[in-house]
Every structure is written in C-alpha cells, then in structure tokens.
C-alpha cells in the first residue's frame, strides 16, 4: 500500500504549501514499427491545491499523452516513459508498484475524457459505473454504491437522478453524459482532476454549463484542476495559469492574463491572432502558416522555426541563437513568465536583459 | 435504418467475418483515398507470412490446373496397369497407384482443373448475383429491399450442401440446360444458387451505410444521377469486403464440390476429381491409406491457400486493424 | 420487446414457407419418376403406378400438391414415404441422435473456442496467440469430409480411443463426430473472440476503467470480456441451426442414424416426403435459433432498442 494520505481534505494540504503534483522533465515516446515518435519531450510543471492549470495546444502537441502518463494509463507498449519524474504529494509515481499506482487513480488523481459516449461502457447503467468507484476503492456493497451514485448525480445536477440512475449512457444527452463522467471522476474527492478536452464534443451553451460545474466543484473541494484544451475561450474563462505546448514541449508558461494579454512566444502570438475576437470585428484572421510537425521527425533547433514569422537564420541570427540549429531553452523572460524562444523579448516588445 | 436492417448488418458482419468493419463507409472513396487504401494494404500484405504461404500454395494450385502434365512427372492419369493396383508410393511414383493401377500423382494433379473451374465459375456467379441484388436492395430500400432481403433469408435458411445436394440429385432428370449435365457447370451453378446471399448482404449493407453518408448527399445535391452515385460512389466502397469474401469463398466452394462429389451427386466418373478419389479410396483406408491421404492433402492445401490469402487481405484492408 | 418478438415471428412465416416451398418444388416439380425408382428392376403394373400417383397427388399441379402438403403439416401430418411409413415417425426416430450430436458440438465450440480466443486476445502476439492463429487457419481450411476421415483413421483405427462409427457406446460415440462437426465453428469462435477482445481492449471505456483505478481483473473481465462476448454468444446461438446442416456429412461418414444421414439417404432414393419433412424441420430450427439470438442480443446489449 502507499503511505500517501488520501483521506485528509485537500484544503488542509493546501495550507502546508507542498504542491500536489510536480512533473519534472517528463519524456514519452512511442516505439512503432515505422520508427520512434517523440510525443512528449521534457515538460515540467507543478500544480497546487485549488489551482487550475490549462494546457493549451493543437492535437498532436503531446498534451493528452502527458496527461495519460500522469494517470498511468498509457498503453505500454507502444508508449514508453523514457525519462523524468511525476511526483504526487511528494512521491515519485513512476517508481511505485503497479498496484500502488492503481490506488492513486480515483481518490488521488482522476480524469475525464473528451467523448463521454465512447468513454462510458455501453452495457452498464451509469449508476453502476459511478458506483464502481466506491466498490473498487472503498469496498461498498452494490446497494450502498448505487445510493452514492444517486447522490453524485444530484451533485453534478443531473435532473431526476434517482430515476435515471439505472439508465444506460446512450439514453443521455451529450451534456448529461459528460456530467456522468464528471460524477464518476469526483466520486472519491480526488486531489487532482484532469479534464481532457471536456467540452470539445458539446454544444456551446452546454459547454458553458459543464465548465461552470467544474469550476463550482473545484471551489467546493479545493482540488487541483488540469484542463487540457485547444479552446482559448475555455482557458480564458476558468484557468489561473496556462502552459502552451508545441511538438511535445512547453513553449510558454505564465498566468492566463499575462500570456493571453501579451504573448512572448511567436506560436502563442499566432494562436491569439488566429481566433476571432468580438472586439476586433472587421479585422482579418491570420492562421499560422504550415502544418504541425511530424513527431517522428521534429525540426532541428526551435521546433516551431519552419512556421515562425519571426525566425532568424544564419547571418541574421544572433550568435548561438540561430532558430534552425540552436534549441531555445524554456527560460524566464520577465518575472512570472517563461518562454522557449531566442527572441521572446522582441515578441513582448521589451528590451533584452 | 430500420431495426431489421440494423440486425442484418450485424449478422452480415459476423457471417462474413468482418466484425472489425472493413473500409469505413463514412469517408469518401475518392481516387486518392482508394489508392492509399490499396497501397497501404499492399505494404501490409508484403509483411504478412500467411499471405505469402497462401499465395505460393495458390500459385501451385493454379499451375496444377493449367499445366498438369508438368507436375505429373510424365505419367498419364488414364494409362493404367492393374498389376500396379494400390501399390504404395515409391521413388518413381511419389503418390503410388490407385485401385485400377493408374499413377496416383497424375490423377491427383489432374483433379485440380475441375476444382478450379468450379470454384471460379461459382464465385463469379455469386458475385454477379450478390452485387446486382445487393445494390438494388440497398439502394432502393423500402419494399424492393424487403422482398429481396426476404428471398435471401429463404436461401439462407437452407444449408449450402443440402440445397445443392437436392438440386444436383434431381438435376439430371430435368431438361434445364447445364443443371442436367452432371458436369462442372452443374455443380458450380448449384453451389452458386445456394451461396450468393452473404455477398448480396455485404453489398447491401455497404450500400445502405454509404447511402446515408454526407458525401453521397453532397453528390446528390450537385445533381448526380442515381446510377452515377451507385457506380461512382457507393460500389467502390463495397469492393474491399467483397474481394475478401470472394477469395475465401473460392476455397469454400472447392471444399463443397469435393463433398458433393464424394456424396455421389457432383462430378461422375470418368471425370477426375478429388471427391471421387476420396470416395474410391475410403474402402481401402486400412490397406492403402495413401489413396485417401493424397487427394485430401492437396484439397486441404488448396482450400488453405484461399483462406490464408483472404484472411491476409482482410487484415490488410481493415484500417482499424493497423496499429 | 414483446411487440418486437411478435413482429419477428410474423416475419419468419414467409421465410419458413418460402424455404419449404423451394425444397418442395425442387423435389416434386422436376420431372423424374419416383414411383418407377421405387420398383427398381422389378416392373410395376400400370394400375399400381396410377394408384400410387393418385395417392401422392403426383398428377396435380405443383401448387395444389404444396397446398395439400401444408394442410397436412398443420394437422401434424408430414405424409408418408413410399413404403407407407409416416415421415413423423422417421423424424422421431432420428432427431434425438442429431440433437445429441449438435449438443456435443456446441459444448466443444463454446468451451474450446472461447478459452482459446480469450487467451489469445489478452496476450496478443504471444506464442499462444500465434498458435491459435495458425491452428485455426489450418482447421478452417480442412474440409469436414477430410477431417472426419482423418479423425477416424487416427483416433479410431490407429489409437483406438474412440469408436469409428455408430452409436453403440452411448454419449461416448458422439465425442469424435461432435468434435469434427464443431471444428469449423470452433475455430471461428476462437478467432471472433480474439479479434473482438483485442478490439475492445483498445476501446475508450476500457481506458476509462483503468483511469478509475479498477483492479486489472475487473478491467479485463467486467469491462472488456463482457462487451467482447456479445458477438460471440450471438454467433454460437445462430450456429446451432447451421450445425444441423453440417450434420449431413458428419453423420454419413460416422454412420450415425440422425436426420442428416436420413435426409441424405432420402435424397438419394428420392423419398420426397422425407426430404421435405426433414428440411422443413431444419429450416424451422435455423429460424428459431436466429430469433432466439436476436432477442438475446437485445438482452446483452442495452443499446439495441427494438420498440
């Protein structure tokens, strides 16, 4: 068994000041027949109680893979965690036995997925699937677990929970199904909830309801929330901090207001100008040129340089800062802001130190 | 989709061994997509040892059927010497001799031709019936579909061997051409007549699935005619599963032919057929087991060739199987 | 559900009638003289021929003959063979043999097929998985006729473990023919289970089950096996009807006095009434078990809503 204390309320822990989760230089690769795909290339971050971290990126940027690595649900093989560490409440998850890892999933870290219809088992009632959490981790009886399921369904505001507890996933609407997923994920009051594109498959009005629900639940329980998304609007609404991922790396990190207000990485900058904004009606949208990189052949130097409007190559570049050959490290640009670009100061419009 | 149609779809998938869903009908089969499907499939096939074993066995069978004299080592299947009756295999006569004292290798080798003829004719007729009836039923739906699907159900309910057995038994006393011939044509037609339904349902289910897709709606919105939609957009989707099915079915038909001939209603002497050889050999199975062994072995290897090629094709053409 | 079953039952009537008419038409409508065949080498007097033709409605048009047959069928009379024995008696005598054979075959098919398929599917690409893949390819490729001979030769003659023909040793006599009859379906069940399981292991809801921290056994048994077995169970159910057809060859080779051998002998001797009677029965079984499977499917998979 783990000697992790998963019974104390999360809020109490928050007072002690240790982060709930620390990810350090995490690397994940997929070893396939056609070669090695580098999905996550050394990302680090930490998450405290009550904090919301948004991980923003296109599909294929490694954001979901890193989350699944933290959960310990990567399919291995083909996936291999090739380096780094994941500390949950001060203990390295990667060094734990499989059984210890399992006991963290649910009460420690919990996850909801994008497509609730395919992520729920079609042949069991939703009540059964929510109740399973209590049966597997708390040893509750079938009947007691069902009663708990009704409570949870009430808590995530599913109307007529007592009547619907024995219905099957396909009998619910998309938004209600996502609520079922959320009920299942928060069943054991997890320290951390990872939401992987929780609203992408939903209608806009339903999206807002689901996000509000997540926000409220977080305030009630003080859990840490990792929100994986490509939706800038969602990030803006709920997150405290944001990490922007590109080609398996974090390219910019800071508070949401800072990063969105004044990007310091050309990729973030590109993202900002490629979404329509109500205030800037009439202006043209500028999509980022080119294609996301092939993770089996990540470009040399800065992985973003083939698509970058601000790149400097050869003679144009400052010494040791050629975008095509020198890898930019993630560095502090201004207090509270990190970016992996040789020319972040230019992007920000401040003088280099 | 009605519940009946849904049910049929599920059953077809199970019957045809395509539960993993072949070409996904929700994507358009434009030329490029088709090309990449087939080139990916070929890349997959090349790495599959089962495919190569099947292909080599299949090629050997084909050559045996086309140029048997090459494999018979110079022996004539019909020049016999009773003095050699049931002689066991030897260095000169690899398969020994049969009861009439004919070289058995030559006889077994010459048996391939009838199997090939019957397998190919039957499968061609099955495809013709299957594609035409299936496309009509799936495309027009409604009453047409209801009637055609029920007719297929009727044939489904009769086991293949049983239906062909009855037809071939009464065939010779009728004046229906081909059916009354007692030849390979009669056997092929009888087997096709009781074996076309799976092909029909495969095509039908593909047509129903594709018909409801967005790109067919788009083609219709742009004013494409029914026939054009059917031929250009819908049928190409059915090619992959039908090809898999047809390959395996050649093997199934060859086995069924041998069985019918063994049961006495298929090919008749003096035709040369593996079924006849097994039937003649069974009486001396204790003293001359090679008379049953060799035709059985070659028959099994032939069926295996088509099963292996079909399996490999299915794995290759199913994008979901690819990791 | 009730309405669904009722509608399915109604739909089976035309299929049952159609199939029996098809076989009836083939047996009776095509020229050829069963009366003469009955006499063999001995000449039969024209008066007797005329009388027999009258008795068996052989002079009436086909649809009249079929109508007469149906009338008999609904009053429980399947007619008599040319020697005057009621067809129903023949069926009563032979059916138990085939039922025993089919039951033995289903047990083999379900037990061996499922176990092999599950083990192969869970450990994909392992040695055992490849073994299952190779051996099922082999078994599927061996025609039942050939398999029957070699089973007789090896287990009956060489090893002497099983009787090679007849039913003298009770249920034990059914083991070898049962295994032969089951072989093809057995291989198919193993493969279906394997693919279905491997496919389900990649399903999103299995990932969810892992994310929930369920023990590995629960993830496999409750969230993967349960879903994977739906197509397998329905296949096995539908296969009961198919096995009856396969019994023709098995029973003939192993000399088991079941309906398969009986129908084959009757086809050879053109005993029309027996052929039509037994084939109609086989069709009925086939349709019945398919109906059972459809209902079973709805029970196993709540996504199927029939009403």
UniProtKB/TrEMBL annotation, chain A:
One of its GO terms (cellular component) is plasma membrane. One of its GO terms (biological process) is peptide transport. It is a peripheral membrane protein. GO terms for molecular function: ATP binding; ATP hydrolysis activity. Residues 21-272 form the ABC transporter domain. It is found in: Cell membrane. It comes from the Bacteria. It holds the Pfam family ABC_tran. The keyword ATP-binding applies. Belongs to the ABC transporter superfamily. This is Oligopeptide transport system ATP-binding protein. The lineage of its organism: Bacteria, Bacillati, Actinomycetota, Actinomycetes, Geodermatophilales.
TrEMBL record, chain B:
GO terms for biological process: transmembrane transport. Keywords: Cell membrane, Membrane, Transmembrane, Transmembrane helix, Transport. Residues 112-310 form the ABC transmembrane type-1 domain. GO terms for cellular component: plasma membrane. The chain crosses the membrane at residues 50-71, 116-142, 154-171, 183-203, 234-256, 292-313. Its main location: membrane. The keyword Lipid metabolism does not apply. It is a multi-pass membrane protein. It comes from the Bacteria. InterPro entries: BP-dependent_transpt_permease, MetI-like, MetI-like_sf, OppC_N. It is found in: Cell membrane. Belongs to the binding-protein-dependent transport system permease family. This is Oligopeptide transport system permease protein. The lineage of its organism: Bacteria, Bacillati, Actinomycetota, Actinomycetes, Geodermatophilales.
TrEMBL record, chain C:
Residues 95-297 form the ABC transmembrane type-1 domain. It comes from the Bacteria. The chain crosses the membrane at residues 97-119, 131-151, 171-190, 232-254, 274-300. One of its GO terms (cellular component) is plasma membrane. GO terms for biological process: transmembrane transport. Keywords: Cell membrane, Membrane, Transmembrane, Transmembrane helix, Transport. Gene3D superfamilies: MetI-like. SUPFAM superfamilies: MetI-like (SSF161098). It is found in: Cell membrane. It holds the Pfam family BPD_transp_1_N. InterPro entries: BPD_transp_1_N (IPR045621), MetI-like (IPR000515), MetI-like_sf (IPR035906). It is a multi-pass membrane protein. Belongs to the binding-protein-dependent transport system permease family. This is Oligopeptide transport system permease protein. It comes from Geodermatophilus tzadiensis.
């Amino acid at each position: 068994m783990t000697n992790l204390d998963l019974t104390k309320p999360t809020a109490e822990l928050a007072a002690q000041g240790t982060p709930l989760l620390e990810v350090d230089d995490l690397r994940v690769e997929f070893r396939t027949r056609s070669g090695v795909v580098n999905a996550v290339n050394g990302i680090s971050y930490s998450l405290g109680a009550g904090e919301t971290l948004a991980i923003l990126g296109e599909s294929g940027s490694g954001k979901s893979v890193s989350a699944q690595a933290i959960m310990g649900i990567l399919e291995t093989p083909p996936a291999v965690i090739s380096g780094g560490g994941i500390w949950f409440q001060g203990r390295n998850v990667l060094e734990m036995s499989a059984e210890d890892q399992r006991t963290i999933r649910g009460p420690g870290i919990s996850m909801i997925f994008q497509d609730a219809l395919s992520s729920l088992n079609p042949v069991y009632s939703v009540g059964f699937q929510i109740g399973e959490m209590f049966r597997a981790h708390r040893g509750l009886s079938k009947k007691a677990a069902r009663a708990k399921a009704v409570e949870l369904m009430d808590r995530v505001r599913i109307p007529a929970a007592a009547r619907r507890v024995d219905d099957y996933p396909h009998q619910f609407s998309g938004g209600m199904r996502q609520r079922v997923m959320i009920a299942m994920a928060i069943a054991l009051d997890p320290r951390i909830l990872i939401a992987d594109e929780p609203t992408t498959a939903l209608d806009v009005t339903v999206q807002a309801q689901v996000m509000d629900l997540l926000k409220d639940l977080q305030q009630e329980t003080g859990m840490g929330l990792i929100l994986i998304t490509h939706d800038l609007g969602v990030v803006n609404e709920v997150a405290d901090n944001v990490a922007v991922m590109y080609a398996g790396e974090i390219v910019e990190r800071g508070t949401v207001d800072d990063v969105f207000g004044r990007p310091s990485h050309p990729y973030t900058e590109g993202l900002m100008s490629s979404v329509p904004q109500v205030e800037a009606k009439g202006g043209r949208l500028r999509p980022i040129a080119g294609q996301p990189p092939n993770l089996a052949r990540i470009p040399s130097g800065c992985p973003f340089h083939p698509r970058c409007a601000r790149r400097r190559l050869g003679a144009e570049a400052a010494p040791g800062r050629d975008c095509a050959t020198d890898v930019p490290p993630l560095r502090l640009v201004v207090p509270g802001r990190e970016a992996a670009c040789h020319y972040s100061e230019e992007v920000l419009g401040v003088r280099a130190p | 989709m009605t519940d009946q149609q849904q049910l049929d779809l599920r059953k077809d998938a199970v019957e045809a061994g395509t539960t993993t869903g072949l070409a996904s009908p929700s994507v358009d089969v434009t030329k490029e997509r088709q090309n990449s499907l087939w080139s990916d499939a070929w890349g997959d096939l090349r790495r599959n040892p089962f495919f190569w074993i099947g292909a080599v066995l299949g090629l050997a069978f084909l050559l045996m059927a086309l140029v048997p004299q090459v494999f018979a080592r110079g022996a004539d299947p019909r020049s016999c010497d009773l003095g050699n009756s049931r002689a066991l295999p030897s260095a000169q006569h690899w398969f020994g001799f049969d009861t009439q004292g004919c070289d058995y290798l030559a006889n077994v080798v010459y048996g391939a031709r009838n199997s090939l003829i019957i397998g190919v004719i039957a499968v061609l007729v099955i495809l013709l019936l299957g594609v035409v009836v299936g496309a009509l039923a799936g495309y027009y739906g409604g009453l047409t579909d209801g009637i055609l699907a029920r007719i297929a159900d009727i044939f489904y309910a009769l086991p293949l061997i049983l239906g062909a057995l009855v037809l071939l038994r009464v065939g010779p006393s009728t004046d229906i051409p081909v059916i009354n011939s007692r030849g390979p044509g009669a056997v092929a037609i009888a087997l096709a007549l009781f074996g076309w339904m799976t092909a029909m349902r495969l095509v039908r289910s593909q047509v129903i699935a594709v018909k409801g897709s967005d790109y067919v709606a788009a083609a219709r919105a742009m004013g494409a005619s029914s026939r054009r939609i059917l031929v250009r957009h819908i049928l190409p989707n059915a090619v992959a599963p039908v090809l898999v099915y047809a390959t395996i079915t050649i093997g199934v038909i060859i086995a069924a032919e041998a069985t019918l001939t063994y049961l006495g209603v298929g090919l008749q002497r003096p035709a040369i057929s593996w079924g006849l050889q097994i039937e003649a050999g069974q009486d001396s199975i204790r003293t001359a087991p090679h008379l049953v062994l060799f035709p059985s072995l070659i028959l099994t290897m032939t069926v295996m060739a088509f099963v292996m090629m079909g399996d490999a094709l299915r794995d290759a053409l199913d994008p979901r199987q690819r990791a | 559900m009730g309405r669904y079953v009722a509608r399915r039952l109604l739909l089976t009537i035309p299929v049952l009638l159609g199939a029996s008419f098809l076989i009836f038409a083939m047996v009776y409508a095509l020229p050829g003289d069963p009366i003469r065949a009955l006499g063999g080498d001995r000449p039969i007097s024209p008066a007797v021929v005329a009388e027999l033709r009258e008795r068996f409605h052989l002079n009436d048009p086909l649809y009249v003959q079929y109508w007469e047959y149906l009338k008999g069928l609904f009053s429980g009379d399947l007619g008599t063979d040319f020697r005057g024995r009621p067809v129903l008696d023949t069926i009563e005598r032979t059916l138990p043999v085939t039922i025993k054979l089919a039951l033995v075959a289903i047990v083999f098919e379900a037990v061996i097929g499922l176990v092999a398929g599950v083990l192969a599917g869970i450990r994909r690409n392992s040695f055992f998985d490849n073994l299952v893949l190779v051996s099922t390819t082999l078994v599927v490729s061996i025609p039942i006729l050939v398999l029957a001979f070699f089973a007789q030769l090896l287990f009956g003659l060489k090893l002497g473990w099983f009787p090679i023909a007849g039913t003298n040793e009770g249920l034990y006599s059914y083991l070898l023919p049962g295994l032969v009859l089951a072989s093809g379906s057995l291989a198919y069940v193993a493969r279906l289970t394997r693919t279905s399981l491997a496919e389900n292991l990649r399903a999103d809801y299995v990932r969810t089950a892992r994310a929930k921290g369920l023990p590995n056994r629960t993830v496999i048994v409750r969230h993967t096996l349960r879903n994977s077995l739906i197509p397998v169970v329905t296949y096995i159910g539908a296969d009961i009807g198919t096995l009856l057809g396969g019994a023709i060859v098995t029973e003939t080779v192993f000399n088991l006095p079941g309906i398969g051998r009986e129908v084959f002998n009757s086809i050879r001797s053109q005993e029309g009434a027996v052929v039509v009677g037994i084939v109609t029965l086989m069709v009925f079984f086939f349709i019945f078990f398919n109906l059972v499977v459809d209902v079973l499917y709805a029970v196993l998979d709540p996504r199927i809503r029939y009403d």
